[in-house]
């Protein structure tokens, strides 16, 4: 088996390395909700029949995101991979970094010139860019950008035929901060994920919001059945359930605040948080990561710069276990 990238999770690898059975691990390495949308029993047709585009997913997604200008994709990862193919060759692409690594890989693999930018460097670099990629809130740093700032960047780029790409994979808890509007806008692409907020990363479903010609260009690059019948069915159930969404928002906000408070107690104010994860820059990140992993607690380690990402524990027992693990890391 071959894999081109490393992501959070990877439990089997760590299980083998540390000699701890899979069932004994607590995985807080991702930003995926520990509370999974409770899908009803899967209809047999989801397994038997090929997916169809007129199955009702489009209308449910339009209601949830507030616009019909959407293309379903096999997770926002598929959109990240295909989007660079839809631009003229050798575009100058700025990516605010650190950020989800697949953006850099996808644009560079297609032959574009990629420049990693700090947030403070964007204003100076903007006149030289054709495309600016922003993850908001940023995975993994939890950095947020105001809609006013992002729209200024978009308008600046659009005046020269450029484009702002905003990855909103972790935006669902704060939907009013999304850049999606009822009508698409020139020079603006927004990527959304169903996996994080709904705890349904395994179904591989996301959406691209953009002007129609760009959506058509991405669709032309997709396989005939890029999004499975099961993913389309599950997405319809989750996106339509407003009562559950409200409950999920409330508990994620509370859990995110609890995680931030816990980590702040031990590591001070260096960390940044979203409702789904916290980001802790630390020169001791590798040591903390190893110490926790030896106890069957998996975090996500980053090396440039040295940092850790902590996702949310699922149960009170997990919260206690995480705090005990963090306490054991103290000098």
From TrEMBL:
Molecular function terms from GO: pyridoxal phosphate binding; threonine-phosphate decarboxylase activity
Lyase as UniProt keyword: yes
Cofactor(s) demanded: pyridoxal 5'-phosphate
Pathway noted in the entry: Cofactor biosynthesis; adenosylcobalamin biosynthesis
Residue stretches making up the Aminotransferase class I/classII large domain: 62-312
Catalytic activity: O-phospho-L-threonine + H(+) = (R)-1-aminopropan-2-yl phosphate + CO2
Top-level lineage group: Bacteria
Record-level GO BP terms: cobalamin biosynthetic process
Enzyme Commission designation: 4.1.1.81
Keywords assigned by UniProt, alphabetized: Cobalamin biosynthesis, Lyase, Pyridoxal phosphate
Top EC category: lyase
InterPro entries associated with the record: Aminotransferase_I/II_large, CobD, NHTrfase_class1_PyrdxlP-BS, PyrdxlP-dep_Trfase, PyrdxlP-dep_Trfase_major, PyrdxlP-dep_Trfase_small
Role noted for this protein: Decarboxylates L-threonine-O-3-phosphate to yield (R)-1-amino-2-propanol O-2-phosphate, the precursor for the linkage between the nucleotide loop and the corrin ring in cobalamin.
Protein's name according to its UniProt entry: threonine-phosphate decarboxylase
Organism: Thiothrix lacustris
